[in-house]
Amino acid sequence: MNLAEQLPVLPVIIPLVAAPITLLLPQGRAPHLWATLISWLTFAVSIALVAMVSDAGVISYHLGDWAPPLGIEYRIDMANALVLALVSGIGAVVFAFAYRSVEREVDPRQSTFFYCAMLICLTGLMGVTITGDAFNIFVFLEISSLSTYALIAMGAKSDRRALTAAFNYLVMGTIGATFFVIGIGLLYQATGTLNLADLHDRLAGQSNRMVEAGFAFIVVGIGLKLAMFPLHLWLPNAYTYAPSAVSAFIAATATKVAVYVLIRFFYSVFGFDFAFVGHAFTYVLLPLGLAGMFIASLVALFQDDVKRMLAYSSVAQIGYMLLGLSFATVEGLTASLVHILNHALMKGALFMAVACVVFRTGSHSIQAFAGLAKRMPVTTWAFILSGLSLIGVPLTVGFISKWYLLTAAFAAGHGYAAFLIVASSLIAMVYIGRVAEMMLLREPPSEGPYAAAKEAPMSMLIPMWVLVAANIYFGVRTDLTGDLAVRAAEALMLVAGGAP
Amino acid sequence: MSASSIFAFFAGNPAIIMMVGALMCIATPRHLASPILLIATALSAIKLSTLGLGEYGAITLFGEQIVTLRLDRLSRLFAIAFHIAAALNIIYAWGQKDRAQNFATLAYPAAALGGVLAGDMITLFVWWEIAAITSVFLVWAPGTRATYVSGMRYLAIQVLSGVLLLAGIVLIYRETGSLAFDFVGLRDDATGAIKLSALVMFLAFGIKCAFPLLHTWVQDAYPKSTISGTIILSVFTTKLAVYALARAFPGTSELIYIGAVMTIFPIFFALIENDLRKVLTYSINNQVGFMVVGIGIGTAGALNGAVGYAFSNIIFESLLFMAVGAAMFRTGTSKATELGGLYRTMPLTMTFCIIGALSISAFPFFAGFVTKGLIVDGAGGVNIWVWLTLLFASAGVLEHAGIKIPYFTFFGHDSGKRPKEAPIGMLVAMSIAAVLSIGIGVFPEPLYALLPNQEQIAGYNPYTAYHIIEQLQLLLWAVLAFAVLVLIKWYPPEIPSTNLDVDWLWRVPGRALLSWASGASRATWNALWGIFAGRIHALMARIYAMHGPEGQMARSWPVGYMALWTAVLLGFVLILSFLG
Fold it and tell me: pLDDT band at A500, cuts 50/70/90?
């Protein structure tokens, strides 16, 4: 048994084992350093996995050497290798970033638990992505969700509303998970298997009430987890009142992983042979994606709380992803996958910039941003550059996403959708512009609670700028993400049985 | 891509060399800015001269080969003109200390240059947007509230043009599968119907080209900039659009009529305008109109004329702006009523200004003459009305730019101002431009050798008796008309209020008519806008009620409602699946 053979299990095992160890460490810097180290290690393993998949194709790892479909299988193809790299990459950056922010926003008695919960959350997200077993997805989804509820509640030190936000999310998240597990149960009854690949084979031709109901439960359950409009109602409060580092981490990863799961079920488990898959694309994902793009963007326009604004913007961006995958073409799926990666980069950077502002001013109200270009220029420019990326300006990753989406929309014959995509980008320009105007053109306050703001510490600036730089780098080197995403999309299409 | 090949890729593009120069002067001491800018322009020009005609800087994007640098006869002509204009502006504003303005002084020309050299539509789009963003710093440069607001309006329109361009690019890419920036054509060859993709792109170019009704941003933003800022702005955006039209839409007959309207309508506005810089911005529209007509005609000769005229126009239009700018620099105003009689103390500037005026009026042996004939001849081949329009417009150019500008600045009534001659940097820049204006007029062959259609231009001689007589007749009648107008008003030369008399003629009756027309159209517009604005307000109020912080869409809903929504959606998906 050599290390390379065991590589696929490491991204889950490393943070899982490391999480309880965190609790044994003394309070202070140690838990943070430990968690950061672990997140970097996980990221390194994930990159190695991407390289392996890129060379060797699909990797199948049998847990405990039990052969699938009875045993649990970790199955890594290009699509989930990319999401793994993304989740662990964001983790590596946010963990490094978190220390000062957490010091300020979380009760110091809880800081050890905080890093423990973050590692558990990372474990869950990695597990959901990597596994090839339906029930395993449910388990990992719950692992990540439960730790997220706790993490959001830790925002209570700054704002007690974090507690109700966490409670609401707990109720909604549990409903989502329950629906999902009911769906899996129904599929299990119909087929007698839980392995995703096996499910796909055995479902072929079985269009009965049981499968149809299972499908509906899974779509709605995951739809709740990924905050599909109008099931997004838990998200704005959760992102707003969570500690800033948590907002940055879950905004960039949790919903993306859920979108990945949705893609996996649509394309790898059900496939296009089922008429209801097409119906769900046309009558659920497409209209709800479009509605989310617009309604959430408009809501974001009027928010006076920047974190809340970004939260609504996330709901709108999820609309883009749903739109892309609802086209059921290689182009659309590529657009969706690319946007999963790119949106994580820009939203992560934006939430980190807000975290820096919160660190210095104690507030995420838009008033706290007045004149920050003079007081916190480095943070200001990080916010503006990532904001430009969110709008979709060329030379940033946002443009790449928009380009793929637009071409996909035209290719699928949805020209009006292309128009709506551009229009909703213009709304994004306005709401980012509002904050930018506040930072660049207003005079900084000379008195009051925000007067003492100065540049954020290096430990926060460096990780944030790593992410900003990634926004630019991947915006120029389109071949890296674009080509891998096209390969992932083509492979998924092949299994789904659609015209490639 | 290795590090050295990346370097070669960037250093191989003149536009990027210029852009680096512009960026450098942000970080270096202020007094080094002008030399750095000029050196960067020179390096870029050297790079351009060493590149032979061909395609460079190919990279692969989205699996498509794109060509970031294409040098053919058409793009080279504009590239050379842009270098000359950039260098003139740097010399004119020598010693300028404002960092933002110094940056924009070269970054904006660099972006326009990059756009002209772009071989594919993506590169064009990127430079197109950079040009929009860098140029707005020039509008903002005076730093007042008015310039800020007008700069925002300017930026909004330019970005709109960019968005339209992107939409057009995506649509064309869908149709043709190619990203290369070549002939597009407004109409489908087979059916003759207007293509949506081409129309969107056409509108994007039209905004930057200041087509009638899309032109207001020019008069809104340009005259509000600083002295040197206005000169720079006057050159690049519209000429980049002219280039793009010449590339993608030559021979589009709609352009003939659009261009003809462009040559006529600014004349009336220019005649009643008091601010001489604003007069010159109207003359930009008028001049670009001639080029647009030439592109619309689309024959080899007319195209040569259009782009050749663009080349010389860049020089003499700058010259006029520079002369008025010099007067403004010394007196602090560009208002016709506050200027006058400056010839006593600014004789050199006056001479340069008259050279610019003669050039723009297309007097023989000045730059305008040698290429304008090509356009007007081409128009004769379309129909008599277009030809007459252009002739009338040519006379109008003489009235508003050729006579009005030098007359009110340097002659006219004596304002009593006795400013010093313009500073040395301005004089040097103006003298270079003046020499070029006369040089092109007397020795047109080097310019002809640069034109795109060499077969057509080979045997062309602008100095035939017919051309000279036609043009002189036109010009002399126009001068006569001016003189008669002055005479009818019992023009007494020794009374300094003369120009108010002359003024009166085109101010009082002309303005009465115009203000009636504008009042009527304003009333109509207000009525229409009132209805529209009312709707918009109501719509915004409704959007706010729905989406504002207290709106239904933004409220924090109790958890029960969230669960209810989930149930509703589940029911919907279930029914949908069962039906399927």
Answer: very low
Q: Which residue segment(s) compose the domain that B290 sits in?
A: 250-488
Give CA–CA dist B4/B67, Å, rounded.
Answer: 19
Give me the residue from B122, B166, B553 closest to A299, CB to CB.
B553
* Inside any domain, residue B27: yes
pLDDT in tens, B422-475: 899 999 999 999 999 999 989 988 888 889 888 888 778 888 888 888 788 778
Do B344 and B279 belong to one domain? yes
Which positions in chain B touch A295 (Cβ < 8 Å)?
A: 547, 553
B229 and B260 both lie in a single domain: no
Asked if residue B189 is part of any domain, the answer here is: no
Question: Which of these three, B440, B457, B488, is where a domain ends?
Answer: B488
Domain count for chain B, please give it.
3
Residues B366 and B416 in one domain: yes
Q: Please indicate, yes or no, whether residues B262 and B328 belong to a single structural domain of this protein.
A: yes
Alpha-carbon distance of B580 to A216, in angstroms, equals: 12
Say if residue B341 is in the same domain as residue B481: yes
pLDDT at B5 over 80: no
Residue B155 has pLDDT above 80, yes or no: yes
Question: Closest chain A residue to B567 measured between Cα atoms?
Answer: A220
**Could you report the per-residue pLDDT of A295-311, keeping only the tens digit for each?**
899 888 888 899 999 99
**What is residue B187's three-state secondary structure?**
strand
When CB atoms are compared, the residue of A233, A274, A422 closest to B562 is A233
Q: Which residues on A lie below 8 Å from B580 (Cβ)?
A: 212, 274-276, 278-279
Residues 182-221 of A with CB under 8 A from B: 209, 212-213, 215-217, 219-220
Of the candidates B425, B418, B436, B398, which has an alpha carbon nearest to the alpha carbon of residue B327? Answer: B418
Band of pLDDT at residue A95, cut at 50, 70 and 90: very high
User: Does A223 lie at the interface with B, CB-CB under 8 angstroms?
Assistant: yes
What is the phi-psi region of residue A424: left when phi exceeds 0, alpha when psi lies from -120 to 50, beta otherwise?
A: alpha
Residue B180 lies in a domain: no
Q: Poorest-confidence range of A175-189, A347-361, B60-74, B529-543?
A: B529-543
B543 and B451 together in one domain: no
Cβ(B346)–Cβ(B326) under 8 Å? yes
Same domain (yes/no): B117, B221:
yes
Q: Determine, for residues B173 and A407 on separate chains, whether the beta-carbon distance falls below 8 Å.
A: yes
Domain end (from B488, B521, B548): B488
The nearest CA of chain B is from the CA of A177 a distance in Å of: 12
Query: Cα–Cα distances in Å, from B276 out to B222, B279, B315?
Result: 12, 5, 18
Cα–Cα separations (whole angstroms), residue B84 to B36, B81, B169: 16, 5, 30
Confidence (pLDDT) at B490: 40
A299 → closest Cβ in B125, B554, B563: B554
Check if A407 contacts B (Cβ < 8 Å).
yes
- Is the domain of B451 the same as that of B546? no
Provide the whole-model pTM.
0.64
- B181 is a domain residue: no
* CB-based contact B362:B368 (threshold 8 Å): yes
Tell which of A395, A406, A429, A486 to mutate to test the B interface (max B CBs under 10 Å): A406
pLDDT digits (tens, 9 = 90+) for B497-512: 333 333 344 445 655 6
pLDDT tens profile A189-247: 999 999 998 999 898 888 788 899 999 999 999 999 999 988 888 999 999 999 999 99
CA–CA distance, A115 with A26 (Å, rounded to integer):
12
**By the CB < 8 Å criterion, does A265 face chain B?**
no
Please give, rounded to a whole number of angstroms, the shortest distance from the CA of B73 to a CA of chain A.
29
Chain centre distance of CA B165: 17
